[in-house]
Write a structure and sequence with these properties.
By secondary structure, this protein is mainly β. Bound molecules: thymidine-5'-diphosphate. The site of thymidine-5'-diphosphate has 7 residues, from strand 4 and strand 5.
Length: about 140
């Protein structure tokens, strides 16, 4: 059963260059799973938040390609906030954690990799249900 200590910041390679910087990410290396899906979040109006759910099986890896935002992870007991504000840091979030994204800066751009294809049945969208599943050791 995942706890907030299983969510980890991963520093990605960076090649600093006067012509512009370069970073990259590899599955089964920096990203500790096979990537089945990639999606992105952009044009987030000030004050909005995203997420606010848990996945039963999907693991994710989140990069702030530009701008900055907070990712709050919660295991039903404790919460932890990760600030993503550099394009060479990724955040690994295991399955079974509640997570929210908020405090998006202007023009922020979140790139997210998932270990499963999109499946609405994989979501837990109610916090009370999440707490109960966690208490019962089912997520
Ligand atoms: P959702 O995961 O609820 O967004 P967030 O967690 O960022 O607030 O997704 C919003 C909508 O987008 C949802 O109704 C389904 C759709 N969607 C897909 O079709 N495929 C995907 O990979 C994702 C992430 C979402």
């Amino acid at each position: 059963m995942a706890t907030i200590d299983d969510a980890k910041i991963v520093e990605l390679p960076k090649f600093l260059d006067a012509r512009g910087n370069l970073s990259f990410v590899e599955q089964n290396n920096h990203i500790p799973f096979e990537i089945e899906r990639t999606y992105w979040i952009y044009d987030v109006p000030g004050g909005e938040f995203r997420g606010g759910h848990a996945y039963r099986t999907n693991e994710e890896f989140i990069i702030a390609l530009s701008g900055a935002f907070d990712v709050v992870v919660d295991d039903g007991q404790e919460k932890k906030t990760f600030l993503l504000n550099r394009s060479y840091y990724g955040l690994y979030v295991p399955a079974g954690l509640w997570r929210e994204m908020k405090n998006f800066s202007t023009n922020s751009f979140a790139l997210e990799f998932g270990s499963t294809q999109y499946d609405e049945k994989d979501y837990v969208r109610y916090y009370n249900e999440f707490r109960k599943l966690k208490r019962d050791g089912k997520i």
